[in-house]
Design a protein that fits this description.
With 177 residues, this protein is α+β, with helices and mostly antiparallel strands. 27% of the residues lie in helices and 31% in strands. It folds into two domains: 1-17 and 107-133; 19-106, SH3 type barrels, CATH 2.30.30.
Length: 177
């Protein structure tokens, strides 16, 4: 049981949170998760293959040279708020089509918040599972014998162990004839 809770807590803390942060002039490395805001020229050029309302392309950088990037696209964010999921199809994006570049970076603040929520949830689950058999009052011992009546099944008539007394049709005579 302790191993389960330790594993759950470790997985919550190791998962971490990542956000897309502006690259600020840094050139992304091949293999990193990136996102590119597409400008008007890029929407016109890429509109035939990706759709006319592209706002941002997100994916893994497969190849980079001086004039263009090759992405394995995971998502396309549209101008009016929609999103399309992609399955890693490669797209060539020229530098002239990009407005702003973003890099996926570790977010310590979000990770701490997620870890705190995970810790509270795991603690609550542990207390619930450990207190499940203890009853409401910790001073009263738990009944471990079979003295409690089993729950009755709904819709199934019970078998009566003693004879049923039928109602009398006439009142008793109380010693009178």
């Amino acid at each position: 049981m302790t191993r389960f809770f330790s594993t759950m807590m470790a997985s919550v803390l190791l998962a971490g949170c990542y956000t897309l942060q502006p690259a600020g002039g840094l050139v992304p490395d091949v293999g990193n998760q990136v996102a590119f805001d597409v400008n008007d020229a890029g929407r016109v050029a890429l509109g035939g293959s990706m759709g006319p309302e592209i706002g941002q392309i997100e994916g893994r950088l497969v190849h980079r040279d001086s004039g263009q990037y090759t992405l394995a696209v995971s998502a396309v964010h549209l101008l009016r708020g929609g999103e399309q999921s992609w399955a890693g199809e490669t797209v060539h994006v020229k530098n002239e089509y990009i407005g702003t570049s973003y890099l996926r970076q570790f977010s310590p603040g979000r990770t701490l918040a997620l870890g705190a929520v995970g810790l509270v949830a795991v603690t609550w689950l542990a207390r619930k599972s450990l207190a499940a058999g203890a009853g409401d009052d910790p001073t009263v011992p738990v009944d471990t014998s079979k003295t409690q009546a089993p729950p009755q099944m709904l819709g199934v008539p019970r078998r009566v162990s003693r004879p049923v007394r039928l109602p009398q049709r006439f009142p008793p005579h109380f010693g009178r004839p």
